Amino acid sequence: MLSINRRTAGLSLFALLTFCATAIPLSAQQTPRSLWLDANLGTGFYIGEFSSLDDFDAFNPGLGSDFSLGFTYAFTSKFAIAAEVGRQNFLHGINDYVRARYASNFFGPAGAATYPGSAVAITEDNSIGVSRYLLRLQFTMPFSETWGSFATAGFGTIHFQAANDDDQSLPENLTGSYDHQSLVFPIGGGATYNINEVLTANARLMLYLTTSDYLDGYAHYLDYELNPGAIVGPGTNSTPADHMLALTLGISWKIYQGATEPAPPIATSNPPSNGGRDGRDGRDGRDGRDGTDGRTDQPRSTEPPTPQPRQTEAEQRRAEAQQRDSISMAVRRRDSIAQARMNDPQATAAPDADADRDGLTNQQEQRDYRTRDRNRDTDGDALTDGEEVETYHTNPNEADSDRDGLVDGAEIYSYKTDPNNADSDGDGVSDGDEIFQQRSNPLGPNGSDSGAAP
């Protein structure tokens, strides 16, 4: 008697293999708003009457082929939706054990050369051709920028045809006519490896759960075993549907990268500043105790700063909004040119290449500056790593190089202050305190320039 636990056994095997494939802590970051072209090739087998997991005497599958093409759209770094079409060709053998087990309703008497009532030859080798059309959701577990693991599930339809070794379609009239189409529910997982910015390799294990018991051209019913040869056509007590298992290797090519809106580089709250009093404002070990970035040859002002008129709350909000807008516009202008080149496949991981187009080679970023070679702005201060090193001579790993309470990009684009000097005008008050607390001009010595910060 054919066990009804074939589906449970198949799912258990799938769960075990999936766990083995994804237990290693691997993951790859997907780029949000990106579109990928996918191609996969591999092997697999079908799970059914002639390839049963319930009785290994009947487990006689042949490894077939699996090929698919599709598109994946990553709308975040972790979630994506995929659409694919595929073709599978599964093989299975008909041995003496199988012929004897299903003789009464499919193969006929022992020694028969053709299926009963037809001219289709009974051959030892047989095949199942399956065309599939799927829509899947995919979840990626990011652990690094290179490796990754993922899980996926979805739904779709398949069209299938069973044939013998002479490429003759198996007859339908023995167990009743059936539909050659079926719903299918793919579930699976695997690992990915980022080759470069536009190419990703993957390995995946997929189980395709169908709603048809006719993938191999035969649907078994328990009634046949109770009354061998007495029932013509389908019975009333059916067994589980047939399924498919496939292991493939693939490659994905990024064909589109949508624009992403950069976050404003300035803090939403007013950061405190110590005006250089404890030496944290100086660069390269200079003490900065005089509030002038560590320089001791500049006389310290003894005159108290002139009180400045306070802004109204509405004026303050309007000024801060204008400052944030000016930074955001500058960042967008800076990134607009580089964005058009983000998909350039020449940006490889070679040491002399510049993968993130920030003006520094990969080798310089890794060896000399300890910055990230696939992030144009490592410290997120609205200046590229190359601009910080080559143009402004600021620290590419520190958003606020002089620690005056203003990020370097804000000093360059909005306030026109010196990102390497905590007190640009030398009046004894740090640039951050002048802007956020005193509302004075950080470029006017001794607070002589009235009005709000620029």
Q: What report would you give on this structure?
A:
Helix content is 20%, strand content 26%. The protein has 454 residues and is of the alpha+beta class. It folds into 2 domains: 6-257, Porin, CATH 2.40.160; 264-344 and 353-454, no CATH class.
Order of strands across the main sheet: 1-2-3-4-5-6-7-8
Q: How much of the residues is beta strand, in percent?
A: 25-35%
The separation of the N and C termini measures: 87 Å
Rg over CA atoms: 34 Å
CATH architecture of the largest domain: Beta Barrel
Write down the overall mean pLDDT: 75
Number of helix segments? 9
Biggest sheet statistics? 8 strands, antiparallel, barrel
How many structural domains does the protein architecture include? 2
Low-confidence stretches: 1-10, 19-28, 266-298, 449-453
CATH topology of the largest domain: Porin
Structure at a glance:
This protein has 454 residues and is α+β, with helices and mostly antiparallel strands. The chain contains nine helices and eight strands.
Task: Note the main attributes of this structure.
disordered N terminus, 2 domains, Porin, 454 residues, 26% strand, disordered C terminus, alpha+beta, 8-stranded antiparallel beta barrel, 20% helix
SSE order and pairing:
Layout: H1 6-22, E1 34-47, E2 61-74, E3 79-93, H2 96-101, H3 103-107, E4 125-142, E5 147-164, E6 181-194, E7 199-210, H4 222-226, E8 243-257, H5 313-339, H6 362-369, H7 385-392, H8 408-415, H9 431-436
Antiparallel strand pairs: 1-2, 1-8, 2-3, 3-4, 4-5, 5-6, 6-7, 7-8
Helix pairs in contact: 5-8
